[in-house]
Amino acid sequence: MMSNLQQQKEIIDVFQRRYATKKFNPERKISEKDWETIMESARLAPSSFGFEPWKFLLIENPEVRQEIKEMAWGAKKTIDDASHFIVILARKNMTLENPHIQHMIEDVNGRTFDPESRFCQLFDDFQRNDLQLTTERALFDWASKQTYIAASQMMTAAAFLDIDSCPIEGFNQEKVDAYLAQNGWMDPKEFGVSLMISFGYRDEDIKPKTRQSLEEIYEVI
Ligand SMILES: Cc1cc2nc3c(=O)[nH]c(=O)nc-3n(C[C@H](O)[C@H](O)[C@H](O)COP(=O)(O)O)c2cc1C
């Protein structure tokens, strides 16, 4: 058993060595078991009301990677050599009318779906009045925010396994959406691209962290 002190040190070590990797070793592949662990850390991520508004596409095909590369300046340095390249999709129009919500409540959570129930009404009220998720864009961004939590868990799990990663927002969303839709890999009525991540083993030194001090970002009230 690790002592509390050892645990604290390990957590900080893991976050110190997670860095946005720019150069991956093309020869080194992530093992199946390690990858399963990383995907499981995504699957177990928290989500608003437990509705899991996401899907994860693992892009193995080198031609597809090339085509994505053309639309993703932020992935240019890593997409070729990354062992695993993930495109995270966020669900669109996640309101009570979306069949995914019924699926989550009935099939995943084993409860009855009743749009008039207190739970559903609370959800509806929360969306309309608390967060004012009243446009398609706001609803997509709300789902997209949640995919970043899963992304973070994946990168942290990877860092625990000494696997490197780079999160990627540098892409033309409209173009990647259209590309995935044209090829039948994503239904554009249901999903949009949220974030991409390269995973693999670094072929460079870990970049030391530059960060604001705790005093700058933290206040006790
Ligand atoms: C949401 C998000 C989007 C990012 N997009 C890119 C990207 O497109 N390409 C890239 O090389 N790095 C990208 N990064 C990496 C950041 O530049 C990096 O995390 C930041 O500079 C801090 O450095 P560190 O992660 O090495 O500690 C992104 C990071 C985040 C969180």
UniProtKB/TrEMBL annotation:
Question: What Gene Ontology terms describe where this protein resides (cellular component)?
Answer: cytosol
> What does the record give under GO molecular function?
6,7-dihydropteridine reductase activity; oxidoreductase activity, acting on other nitrogenous compounds as donors, with NAD or NADP as acceptor
- Entry's InterPro entries? NfsB-like, Nitroreductase, Nitroreductase-like, Nitroreductase/BluB
The UniProt entry, under SUPFAM superfamilies, shows:
FMN-dependent nitroreductase-like (SSF55469)
The processes (GO biological process) annotated in the record are: 2,4,6-trinitrotoluene catabolic process
Alphabetical list of CDD domains matching this protein: NfsB-like (cd02149)
Question: Might you give the EC number(s) for this enzyme?
Answer: 1.5.1.34
What cofactors does this protein use? FMN
Going by the UniProt record, its keywords in alphabetical order are: Flavoprotein, FMN, NAD, NADP, Oxidoreductase
Pfam families, per this entry?
Nitroreductase (PF00881)
- Domain Nitroreductase, chain residue ranges per copy: 17-181
Q: What class of enzyme is it?
A: oxidoreductase
Domain of life, source organism: Bacteria
Q: Which PANTHER family match?
A: NADPH NITROREDUCTASE, OXYGEN-INSENSITIVE NAD(P)H NITROREDUCTASE
Similarity remark: Belongs to the nitroreductase family.
Indicate what this protein is called per its UniProt record.
Oxygen-insensitive NAD(P)H nitroreductase / Dihydropteridine reductase
Q: Which organism is it from?
A: Catellicoccus marimammalium M35/04/3
Query: What is the organism lineage in this UniProt record?
Result: Bacteria, Bacillati, Bacillota, Bacilli, Lactobacillales
